[in-house]
Amino acid sequence: MQFQVRFSMFVWLLAAMTFAVSIGIPRGFNVTTLLIFLCSLGVPFLKPINHRIDKQDKILIWTFFIFSVSFMAFALCDSFAARGLDKPSRFLLVIPVIFLLLRSKGPQEWLWYGVTIGALLAFGLALYERVLMGFARADGGQVAIMFGDTGMMLGMLSMAAAIFFFAQKRFSWMIIALAAGFAGVGTSILSGSRGGWIAVPMVGLFLFWECRDLLGKKRLYSVFSVALICIVAAVAIPQTGIQKRVGEAVSNIEHYLAGSQTTTSVGLRFDMWKAAINMFESAPIFGVGESQMQPIKRELAAEGMINEHAVPFNHAHNDYLQALSTRGIIGFILLMAMYLVPLKLFLSKLRQYKDNWRIRSYAIAGALIPMCYMDFGLTQAMFMHNIGVIMFAFPIAFFWAALRWAEREELAKLELKN
To answer: 116 in a domain, yes or no?
Structure first.
């Protein structure tokens, strides 16, 4: 029994460390997620618990399973290449991790320390690269967009951590978590990843709305005012690079529409989107397959429909168009299910527990993950990158298991009272 207690603590430590080392230590997430998957192989040997896997657990597990298997089926039908199985397999490998966490009672609140440390480390690395190394964009050894978007998500999760600590009246950690929230946003700014910036108002409004009863009107207005001042200051200060990056985007769009310059970042992305729409129109049900993307783009470039510099890119820089072009309507439906099913599960817990802020905090954090990805996916194909898959699937598993344990503990308290 003592071994299982220590093993459970180790498992939750690995979950927290996944956030802590995710991008602050380049590719650190690979090590922790591999270790926690290896731990999940020991699930059959763990002592059974009284709580069974319920309907909602099964819905989440089946969503991961169906998305993974269908994604792999598309890859095999497309080119029979084993490399196409790599990223979708991560959604399959997270399933035993869900079973492991649902069987391992441990300090779930360590997740909050993990996201807070992760956001602060990421910001430290971003500052080092921009200020000391002189990088034009911080990237943490990743694609700059993936680094910035993951940093943004860590920042948003740190805001959920601040909510948890505030509800628990642990104000010192609340202040640290708030600082980490701004650090995560700062990481995104230093990476120059414009697409992730849209998450700030979208997720911010969600957080304000869900916390309106906890904070009260006066605190809510105060927090909103401070957040608004910080956003305005970040935009107004030239050193942040926001003005420059937004100005570049506007200029890129103007040049693209005028046809005078189409090789800019935005111009090439528009051409990739144009090509993806063309592919979807030619094969709307099942898509053209990833192996056909570049050959088709070469044809479109030869016909003058897109710039030849858009051909080498192996995805559409948009998750929705990537799914539609390579896997058709079927793939698009599966992608939306992967976003919306976990989101709906977490939101249902928010409706169910209106006053229990321990459970609500985990539900808010879990909901933030698909919300962020739905935003990031507008300008980047997140699931075409290893970090994009892992930092979506595993965090959802972590927060879902933490929420379920918080529910079990609440139920145990009620049974004791009765």
So the answer is: yes
